Amino acid sequence: MPTKLTPENYYSVETDWDYMSFSRFKDFQRCEAAALAKLKGDWTPELDAKPLLVGNYVHSYFESPEAHEKFVKDHKSKIMSTRGKTKGQLKADYKFADVMIKALDDSELFNYVYKPGQKEVIVTGKLFGYDWKGKIDSLVLDQNYFCDLKTVDDLHKKHWQEDSRSWDNFIEDRGYYMQMAIYRELIKQTFGKDCNPYMFAVSKQAIPDKLAIDFTGESEALRMQAALEEIEANQERYWNIMMGEIKPKPCGRCEYCRSHKVLEEFVHATDIEVY
Ligand SMILES: [Zn+2]
């Protein structure tokens, strides 16, 4: 039996070995070697720490005043300026996060749909025979829906998709069809209710853009189904890597792989890969 999840142990290493999660599945899809090193605690990525913290700052505000206060206190050295004229004030990134918060806070639709829900609800279940965990930003069970909150650099930026060789939006690029499909399934298994996914996204532009997004159309259903099939096809390999039965494959180009790269041979100039 996997360890029972609580708010305290949800992000702990111990439960990370018991349950697959959306973010770790994505880690494995990007680079198996980096994902395993991260899970083992052998390596911490440099790049994504700051945007992640800004996103969590925004989340905690809409969770509860207590959660926000605790978050600021726990991360004080990173959030507050400690020197010069601005000492004791929020650093620029977090002043700006307050602008993003206001953009949502002023929205009637957001207040009506997102705010009433139960926040940070832990859900678990089995996807194709393996244990999974998830955390729902805002769950409104009696109205059969849940919401996820995203901070995104630009809501309308195009992202190149190598698989389909076409441009797509941030939902596809960040794997959010998969995340919504996973959460829907885990809520079903935890509470016995089929809930509709909604997403509120706010941009990190000087004047923040915002969107309320649903996943109710036919094309959304197809993409969510395809995402679950992707999990079914790949997760056994990832679990086997975690159990040490298969060696992880390095992607050869991520932060982790670059830091472990050893020059061994020459490559023809015309053969240098571009991505
Ligand atoms: Zn890699």
What does this structure look like?
The structure is a single chain. This protein is α+β, with helices and mostly antiparallel strands and 275 residues long. The protein folds into two domains: 13-47 and 107-271, Lambda Exonuclease, Chain A (Alpha-Beta Complex); 48-98, no CATH class. The protein has helices spanning 13-18, 22-30, 32-40, 49-63, 65-74, 76-79, 92-105, 108-113, 170-173, 176-191, 218-242, 255-259, and strands at 118-127, 130-140, 145-152, 159-161, 166-168, 196-203, 210-214. The strands form two sheets. The chain has a five-stranded mixed beta sheet with strand order 1-2-3-6-7, with helices on both faces. Strands 4-5 form a two-stranded antiparallel ribbon. Helix 4 packs antiparallel against helix 5 (65-74). The longest helix is centred in the C-terminal third of the chain and has 25 residues, at 218-242. The protein is globular, with a radius of gyration of 20 Å. The protein binds zinc ion. Zinc ion binds next to helix 3 and helix 12.
| Low-pLDDT runs | none
Helix and strand sequence? HHHHHHHHEEEEEHHEEHH
Strand order of the largest sheet: 1-2-3-6-7
What is Rg?
A: 20 Å
> What is the tally of beta strands?
7
CATH topology label of the largest domain: Lambda Exonuclease, Chain A
Largest sheet: 5 strands, mixed
**Structural class of the helix and strand makeup?**
alpha+beta
Estimate what percentage of residues fall within beta strands: 15-25%
